[in-house]
């Protein structure tokens, strides 16, 4: 059996309230629109998660809320964890190896998510933005593995990659 990973960086966050700490920053208007566009894109392509694992930061929670509004009941009850907040690639992999769904959506932050994306795939997509992984960037990756515990570096095959500007501009 295969496993599918939907790897998404949170959408664009607001910087207008300097009293908020990094963990508490919400999405801005463009970020909400981008997250909705990514959710609609995933739905149209049939990439619907049965499990969601996310950083517990406000902007990742809001990204999931906006995405899920476009995807219906996909994802079930998300798991929000502090261990994915600004996590390096190795910590992201450790979290993913604990997953139980067949199609998992993982929401995180740069720089770790960009590093993780570059290391988890066998071959990067021919897209200029893949390695810097801008806000809202989403990769759909397939693994020929029976469990998430079996995955490792350079094993994923990229099925799709998109950045929100390709959907909203």
Summary, kept brief:
With 169 residues, the protein is α/β, with parallel strands linked by helices. Helices cover 31% and strands 20% of the residues.
Note down, in words, how this protein is organized.
The chain is α/β, with parallel strands linked by helices and 169 residues long. The chain has a single domain, classed as Rossmann fold (3-Layer(aba) Sandwich), CATH 3.40.50.1240. The chain is 31% helix and 20% strand. It is built from 5 helices and 6 strands; from the N terminus they run βαβαβαβαββα. It has helices at 29-45, 58-71, 89-96, 112-120, 165-168; strands at residues 3-9, 51-55, 79-81, 103-108, 138-143, 157-162. A 6-stranded mixed sheet has the order 3-2-4-1-5-6, with helices on both faces. Helix 1 (29-45) crosses helix 2 (58-71) and helix 3 (89-96) crosses helix 4. The protein is globular and about 45 Å long. The N and C termini lie far apart (37 Å).
